[in-house]
Every structure is written in C-alpha cells, then in structure tokens.
Amino acid sequence: MKSVLKKTNRAVTLILAGAVLCTALSSCSSGGTNKSNPVAVDEFGEVDMEKALSYETDIDALIEKLEAKEVDPSKPVSENVNKKTLAVFNWLRENHGTKTILGQQMMNEKNYEDAVYYGLSEDLPAIKGFDLIFSTSSGDTSQIDRAIEWHTKSSGLITLTWHWNVPRDIDNLSKGTAFYTEEITNFSLVNAVTPGTKEYEQIIHDIDLIAIQLQRLEEADVPVLWRPLHEASGSWFWWGGSSRDNSMEDSYKKLWYIIFDRLENYHKLTNLIWIWNGQNQRHSVSPNTYDISGTDIYPNSQDHTAQEKSYADLQKITAEGKMIALTECGYIPDIKDMKETGAMWLYCLPWYGDFVYASSGGGPVLDTDGLPSVNTEKMSEEFLKGFLEDENVITWKKMPKWDGTEKNVPENTDLLFKMANWSKDH
Asked: Can you tell me whether residue 128 is helix, strand or coil?
C-alpha cells in the first residue's frame, strides 16, 4: 500500500506539510494555549505512513470505555477542548431550545450568499459552513483559509463537513477520486475499516491529512463544529447506506469510531465540537462521541414549516439533553412555526448558491450594481428579512464577539456594497 500512496498527488501532501510545520512551530498565529499532537510527516513532506499505521484503534475497547462513561450533555464529549471552544459550546447550550442560530453553507469565494443577507438587513448568518472536499484530492485548502478569516476577522462561527473523496478504484489510482457511491467501482467500506487492506491505509492517510487542516484551525484559535460522515442514512455517499446483514451500518460505525479516536485520543485536537449526522437508529453511535445531533432536509417543493416530525424523529434517536440541529436545509424553517411546535433547531443552515440567490447559467443573477437578489423560488424577500430581524433568531450581529477576534464585515462583502453605493452616486 505504501507504493499506492506514493502515487497520491504530491501537491496535496506538500501543501499540507507546510501546515504541519506551521502548527509544530506554533508560528502561524497567536492561537490558543492548548495544542494537539502534530501529525508525523516523512522527509518528502508526506504523511509518515509507518508512524500513522503504528496507531490502531481498538474499537471494542473504545466502545467499552465509552459505554462505561456517564453521558453528560452539559459537557463537550472531547476531553481536550480549549478555552474558546468550551465558551462556544456553553453559548450553544445556553441558546438551545429557546432560539435558533442562522447558518449558511459557503463555496464560491465571492460570497454572494452574504450579499443577499447583507442587502436586506446589513446583517449576516452567524455560522458559515465550509467543506474539506478538496483537501485530500487536490490540496486546495482555500476553504480552510476562508474559515480562518471568517472567525478571526469577523468573529463568526464555522462548521465543517467533509465530502470525502477516495479512489474510484483502489487498484488503479489513475481513475481519480469521488465521494458519490455510483462513481466508485472498487473501494470497499468494509475493507476501509479492516487493518491491512489498501482501503484501510487510504482512510488512515486521509484522516491524518484532515487532522492537519483541523490543526491549522486550532493554531488560529478557531473552534469547529465538526460534522464528518454526514447523511449516513442514505446510500449516495460511499460511507453511508443500509444492508440486510447490517454490514454497511456496522462498517459506518467503525469508521466513525476510528475518526473519533484518531482525532480525540491520538492527535488530541482541542477545537472540536462533534456533530453526528447519521440520521437513523441503525447508524447510531455512542452519545459520548457527539455533542450535537443533526439532520439534513431538502423538501421537493417550497416548505418553510418547522419540520416538526423530523425534529421529533431525531429526538427519539438522540441521547436526552443533546443539542439538535438542522445541519443542512433546502428551505429556512419559519421561526414562528418553530416556536409554536417546539421544533426549535439549534441552528439551520441552507445550502449555498441558488438555495439563496437567484441564478442563471450556473451563476448568480446580478443587478446593474453587481448585487445578487433572493431566489424567490426558495423564499420571498419579506420572509427572509423577517427571519433575520426576529428576536428569536441569532444572526452575526446578535452573536457575541469571541475572544481574540475582530468583528468586521467580510472584506469582499464590504467592498461589493461600497462599489454598488459608488455606482448609485455616480
């Protein structure tokens, strides 16, 4: 397998190696006081697989330890959390069940989603979602760069998901990578959690690459609402799906525990708030491995209800007292309906692009001042403005300023509106 991994795009490992060195020397920022264990790399700047494979998760022993531990929703499941991450966790707990926090998934670096919100209310979502989708395939770490900037320059919170690209064919890496099940011809989830297989060595390699990115965030003192292996109840991602003999579900759980153990007990990351997004009982994991239980909902037509049934269904499979979030949504739920039904999600996070702004040809529809507008097929301007201004919705402006951060409107959003105002005046 070592020879297989050597064929991995060297650009990925060299770029990430710089982040390892930065973290190890503690020279990238002032950061927090607690630090995790740096990921070992070899002389080529690649993950040192000999060292990486020397640590192996004893899943049975881990589960036994987790089951013996009392479930205490008032405390983070991580025993390593630093001061700021604990402050964010406590703030989330304080608001859970009484208010909802507005989030927004991001992708395009121009942040047109921000412009929609800011244009209506001079306000923004409090949480931005970023993705590790490119971190193991191309070495593109711009999502992490933007996450760091959002927290440090604007005092916003971040949540991270991971569309995990693995080889389409573990025996022929020239076929590229993918995360959709239908695009993968030869990569076994069962093998991925079986030490000694090519798939297992690949996932260990990738988890350590991701650990490097999480350590970059840690070094910048950025707490992370961490959501790996999302939407596991569905079969569209290679880590998800169901089977008659439960082999898929069991393998998913093993993979979850490997990720948790490796980041918590081996690398000892200090900035993670864990989100379980398994979405059904068959994919349930120990409540001592997650702080927040989440579900993703994409109705087929415009639907701004609170999704009361989905909330209740999630409650049934979530440990009592744990926070519950709408970790992705196609439509923002109505805050009044949330209050009336009691389905008060910790936060709701609409997907990016035309889930928020009007688009055409794959890009936003811009007015003469270069500004996007609300996609009225998803919601009206009146609805969104009312949601942003409701006292039970926490937006960027209503959220506290976190220690060690500035609270500025993001530079590209500020510039976009300054240019638009100049255009109007001239």
From this structure: strand
